[in-house]
Amino acid sequence: MDKFANIALDIPVDSLFTYSIPDYLQESVQRGSRILVPFGRRILTGFVVSTTDKSDIDKVKDIKSALDTEPALNDEMLNFGMWISEYYLSLPGEILAQFIPKKLSIQSEVVYASAEDYAARVNELRGAKEVLYDIISLFTGPAGAKLTKKQIDKKLGLNTSYYTEYLVRKGILVKEKQYSRATRELTVKCAVRNFKGSSAEEVIAEHGIKTPRQIELIKILSENAKVETAALSKSHGISSSTINSLYKKGLLKIEEIKKERSHTELFEEEEKQLVLNDEQEICLNSINDAVISGKFKAFLLHGVTGSGKTEVYIRSLETVIAEGKTGIVLVPEISLTPQLIKRFKNRFGEKVGVIHSKLSEGERFDTYRGIQDGKYGIVIGPRSALFAPLKNIGIIIVDEEHDSSYKQETSPRYNARDMAVIRARFNSATVVLGSATPSVESYYNAQKGKYELIRLSRRATESSMPEVKIVDLRRKSETDGFEYSEEIEKLRNRFFSKELAYAVKKRLERKEGVILLQNRRGYHSYIECINCGRVEMCERCSISLTYHKKINLLKCHLCGYTKRAAAKCSGCGSEKLIESGAGTEKVEEFLANLFPEAKIERMDSDTMVSKYKYMKVLSDFHKGNTDILVGTQIISKGLDFPNVTLVGVINADIGMLFPDFRATERTFQLLTQVSGRSGRSEKPGEVLIQTNHPEYKLFEKVAEHDYEGFYNTELRSREAGMYPPFGRIGLVEIKSKNQKEAERISRNAFDTLKNFKYGSYLQIFTPSQPLISKAKDFYRYHVVVKSSRKTDPSGKILIESFRHLRQNTDSGSGVRITYDIDAMNFL
Ligand code: ADP
Ligand code: ZN
Ligand code: ZN
To answer: How far apart are alpha carbons 519 and 305 in whole angstroms?
Structure first.
């Protein structure tokens, strides 16, 4: 048996640590085990990556204890984790920590119980030490007594490890796994409104509330009687101290309320009995063949919006289950809708385990345990679901594979779509990447034969693709042919055309649903002073503050900083302020004025303060209780509502001008996806896209549903710039509160990369400040590095260069450096 274990700890040190395995832990410490070790003065959780019987280190400390009876990570998961760690230069401990629910809350403990036929075996002990009988007597009392080792030790007042293990070997005691109760919380904490009737303003005045956060919270509570505290901190940056302050003032109560009913219960949708069409049959057959072959194979499923991809996923999972295997379905968080979950649950019932960010730690733990124990054969969730501890994986499906949320933007910076392909390979499984708008990289892989391309070119229902019109916002609206309407005729603003207003009006008359996309939340995106030109900026970041009217606050969308909106310029005191850039809040208000009779709901991260609200809004819209749904990109994906016949895009230019080589691609994807929400049943759909730049070729491609056309143009420009798929992009970000220091380190990084042996293989750009040059008080510098696929097909050169940089950079104090392979975010 090995005496030493090499352990990955979740601390920022790029190496494994060696500890010795004490005798009594020999059995429970193996590759993949989760253990506790002393580290300095702390006790840390780590994973055993390997064990050996030799160590060169003189003073090796003992592992303190093992956290689970069986290794938390099996070989496959461990190998997969180490692969990710190599490729993305993330620390092993950091990546392995992603595999299990956060915190120690998921601690499982070993309990001992008497074996069924222990009595006969006890007789065989004869003449053994007394202590053994003492231990046995603990279990012979009330039937089924279960005790942890700690409890046994305590009762007998000595360390009994050796003896209990002996009794296990003799078949008198058995070991079982039990999960600590503390984690099984079934409640969520909520802040509950505790003021009456009066408006938020009155409450604020009456109680002399001054701080912006408290004001914001009062306003949120005046609209929502009950809000989860976790949602407050997550979407609004409202901390527990703010909540406590209002609690002390008696303005809110804290309640532990029972976990809300699960997603699907509120959302009703009949299960449809579908007969696959020809194209779906062909796709399914190809996938089935691969699944049954039991060999690794990757597919790109390019299916237009509404072509019935979900049904293909479901049927292929049926095959996987029939083969006795398991499957993972990855979806972007925002398309993890009750509707999608309902469809899988309708078919697979209790076999489906759902993971999403709104789960409490307790729920997350329960799901995790369910997967481990084999209760769930299918796991659906966002990127982290890729790490589900399923055994015998037969398929991994990545829906909306182009979505940028698959890339984690904090360490470890993995891309779950790319890693799905890797995990499938480790499992000799099938991987299906599906999208109506595949990423340029994936489509290229399909063209090169790395993935097999399968297609769904038509909508699955009787409907055809919606008619898409581009509306020029600069032109005076043509209203010929429209029915005269006094209110609309009077419309004079820069963001809502008469065409769109007419189109909405028609839908209201016909009782058809409308979806309006404005990919910007808040009321105004910035406020500018005419007198001195000052724009109200965040104090901590280099971006402008967004005005939120309902709460009357200016808010930074990056760091959450808030400030009261004043009527005067904070620079020169002038009252001549102009407000620019309409956000969802303004669009909502505008619509309410124009169509007072319409029922309108807004869906963005400001309004979705609880999962109940989210479900309610979707369910109301589905039932036709809501006429118009206004929202950010949250509403662009996955929704399959047959009654929607109009989709309007308020401003298609948002995002187009970002300094990012993927800006065009992302705009194409967003517009195509949101367009795809229109006309999904027999009633024909229409899409109106408003823009100030109708000359952009891109809009034509969207209007003509011409993915290939878009792809070909895009591919040429990618090739010209050696961007993916022709080159890999790595990004080194250097940030510090001290700008000089950040700049200095970034210049050093540039030199180090240049002078390394691979310097001449790489295209290394001089350090520059990104668009958001300062965020949360940190000044930021970027060093962008490109590596050609021709000279560096596996990425080794780029990765090795970054590794060299990491080993040779003394970041000094207060400077933070991150390394991002296959970077997606350059802002
Ligand atoms: P996608 O994910 O490709 O955008 P969905 O999977 O949401 O599309 O399917 C769109 C609609 O078509 C759904 O309402 C679904 O029930 C329906 N549908 C799928 N396959 C068929 C079929 N073979 N016959 C009839 N309707 C179908
Ligand atoms: Zn001014
Ligand atoms: Zn900020």
So the answer is: 20
**Which residues does ligand 1 sit against, CB inside 6 Å?**
272, 274-277, 280, 303, 305-311, 460-461, 640
355 CB-contact burial (10 Å; exposed 0-12 / middle 13-18 / buried 19+): buried
Please name which ligand lies nearest the alpha carbon of 637.
Answer: 1
Atom of ligand 1 at shortest distance to CA of 310? Answer: 6
3-class DSSP state of 617: helix
Confirm if 477 and 499 have CB atoms less than 8 A apart: yes
Q: Which residue has 């609200």 as its token pair?
A: 613
Instruction: Collapse the DSSP code of 629 into the 3-class scheme (helix H, G, I; strand E, B; otherwise coil) and give the result.
Output: strand
Residue 435 CB partners (closer than 8 Å, separation 6+): 301, 302, 303, 399, 400, 401, 402, 442
Residue 716: pLDDT band (50, 70, 90) is very high
Q: Minimum-distance ligand to the CA of 541?
A: 3
Q: Which ligand is nearest to the CA of 544?
A: 3
Say which residue the tokens 């970002």 belong to: 658
Which residues, by Cβ under 5 Å, contact ligand 3, an ion?
538, 540-541, 556, 558-559, 561
CB atoms within 10 A of CB 53: 8
Confidence (pLDDT) at 295? 97
| DSSP 3-state of 142 | coil
Closest approach atom of ligand 1 to CA 276: 23
Tell which residue, 362, 404, 363, has the closest CA to residue 382.
404
Q: Tell me the pLDDT tens digit for each residue of 546-597.
A: 998 888 889 998 888 888 888 889 889 999 888 888 899 999 999 999 999 9
Sheet holding 42-52, edge to edge: 17-20, 4-9, 42-52, 34-39, 65-66
β-strand 393-399 against 226-228: which pairing, if any?
unpaired
Dihedral through CA 386, CA 389, CA 391, CA 395, nearest 10? -10
- Atom 10 of ligand 1: nearest residue by CA position: 306
CA-nearest of 136, 131, 142, 127 to 173 is: 136
Nearest protein CA to atom 26 of ligand 1, as residue: 461
Q: Determine the distance separating the centroid of ligand 2 and the alpha carbon of 371, expressed in angstroms.
A: 59
CA nearest to 417, candidates 437, 391, 441, 394? 441
Contact between 510 and 516 under an 8 Å Cβ cutoff? The reply is no
Q: Sign of dihedral through CA atoms 416, 421, 425, 429?
A: positive
- Looking at residue 78, its amino acid is L
Quickly list DSSP for 345-376: HHHHGGGEEE--TTS-HHHHHHHHHHHHTTS-
pLDDT of residue 379: 97
CB atoms within 10 A of CB 585: 25
Which ligand is nearest the CA of 675, by number? 1
What is the gyration radius of the CA atoms in the chain, in angstroms?
30
Residue nearest to atom 27 of ligand 1 (CA): 460
Reference 387, options 405, 372, 409, 404; nearest CA is 372
Q: Higher pLDDT residue, 127 or 742? A: 742
Q: In angstroms, what CA-CA distances link 68 with 103, 168, 183, 589?
A: 14, 17, 15, 55
To test the ligand 1 pocket, which listed residue (640, 641, 674, 680) has its Cβ within 8 A of the most ligand atoms?
640
pLDDT computed for residue 401 by the predictor: 97
User: Could you check whether the bond before residue 725 is cis, i.e. omega within 30 degrees of 0?
Assistant: yes
Q: Enter the tokens of residue 659.
A: 């300094």
Q: Which atom of ligand 1 is nearest to the CA of 640?
A: 7
Question: How far does the centroid of ligand 1 lie from the alpha carbon of residue 82, in Å?
Answer: 39
DSSP-based three-state secondary structure for 254: strand
Query: Side chain identity at 680, as an amino acid letter?
Result: R
Whose alpha carbon is nearest atom 9 of ligand 1? 308
Angle (deg, nearest 10), helices 309-322 and 338-348: 30
Task: Please give the DSSP secondary-structure letter assigned to residue 251.
Answer: S
